[in-house]
Amino acid sequence: MIFHQFFEKESSTYTYLLACEDTREAVLIDPVVSEIEHYAQLLAVKNLTLAYSLDTHVHADHVTAANQLREKFGCKTVLHRNSGVACGDIFITDKSAIRIGDILVEARYTPGHTNACTSYVVEGMVFTGDALLIDGCGRTDFQEGNAATLYDSIHQQIFSLPDETIVYPGHDYNGGLSSTVGQERLHNARLGNGRSKQEFIDIMQKLNLPYPKKIDIALPANKACGK
Amino acid sequence: MIFHQFFEKESSTYTYLLACEDTREAVLIDPVVSEIEHYAQLLAVKNLTLAYSLDTHVHADHVTAANQLREKFGCKTVLHRNSGVACGDIFITDKSAIRIGDILVEARYTPGHTNACTSYVVEGMVFTGDALLIDGCGRTDFQEGNAATLYDSIHQQIFSLPDETIVYPGHDYNGGLSSTVGQERLHNARLGNGRSKQEFIDIMQKLNLPYPKKIDIALPANKACGK
Ligand SMILES: [Fe+2]
Ligand SMILES: [Fe+2]
């Protein structure tokens, strides 16, 4: 499998490219509109065809490249049915999957940060978007966020994966690239060490985060697939 | 919307083409491998691009055209995650959806005839495959069939649609083209007129149907996308 992790500085967003070495089909997970040239370059260098652009959720902090990638490469755009993004091509739900060559990309519905959050599981890796972050998790005070729901999603859909599964988050603000399910299950500051749901809800309620800077631009843009 | 109903005589199979008049994108539901030239002709005449080939389930009575359509037109093949068809492109689950232009094709999981049966709902129409047939239903004695499950599927996922919804079945052996939800809900010989689940189970158990003629050829072929 071909694997590449991209980083977009302004919003500290990670974008992932996965591709089948045989068929040369590729998917991008959470592409950022400003970074299209980087994706195009890698696709060309590696001789890959972009088949799908996947979003883990409707982002509030950056604009998705979904629509521009669709226009440029003819790929299909994929996101959860609950996203309310009418311009998407394929609307997945829990346990839906997308195949590229030998690779199966499996969707696990992980709401709580938003009501459309989906994690993607691929061969020993999980792309968690903003559900589970390294030593943290997505905020739950916007976009139908709900701490109790997020707790259940992470426990049932992510911590139930084998401990050695590599966690690739949607963001990291401290330079971390990846973690593992075991590491987060045991040591995540908000969820690790068997923390109860009520403890987690209390932590999330006390975060007192500022209003998201780009939400008023990013949300309407992403509801239009980044147009 | 562009709509066309095809009939394949040998297995009495209905295939449906739906397309967006604006974008000229099309889907085929339950295409039969022997009929590819008919589909190709209509696509050409109407100037349509085949975006997706959808199967309602893994058929036991005819071979799907999915793989040949994919090779000929570059479309993506779609079926339920439970199908066990590893060569599919997009594996849907209940409430997944596919968009072509203005048209949303919504999946409703309707197991019972098989464990992967999906009905597709599109603007006042429901494509029921072999779950609900005109004045009948699919058999439940093969492919993880289960009469109680089928009863629940039809009641919860099909009879819950508005009565005027047009029912387009996967087969009809008596020349019927379509029905309506109201008609079937009230008058279907096996399910109509408020028949109980136990009555339905008894009816299905007493059908005493012959071994499906083509199942030993069709099933392995369809598990390989019709290759
Ligand atoms: Fe987010
Ligand atoms: Fe069937």
UniProtKB/TrEMBL annotation, chains A, B:
Record's keyword annotation contains Acetylation: yes
Coiled-coil boundaries: none
MF terms in GO: hydrolase activity; metal ion binding; sulfur dioxygenase activity
Origin superkingdom: Bacteria
Requisite cofactors: Fe(2+)
Keywords: Acetylation, Dioxygenase, Hydrolase, Iron, Metal-binding, Oxidoreductase, Transit peptide
InterPro entries in the cross-refs: Metallo-B-lactamas, Mito_Persulfide_Diox, POD-like_MBL-fold, RibonucZ/Hydroxyglut_hydro
GO terms classed as biological process: glutathione metabolic process; hydrogen sulfide metabolic process
Domain Metallo-beta-lactamase span(s) in chain numbering: 12-171
Family according to the record: Belongs to the metallo-beta-lactamase superfamily. Glyoxalase II family.
Name listed for the protein in its UniProt record: Zn-dependent hydrolase
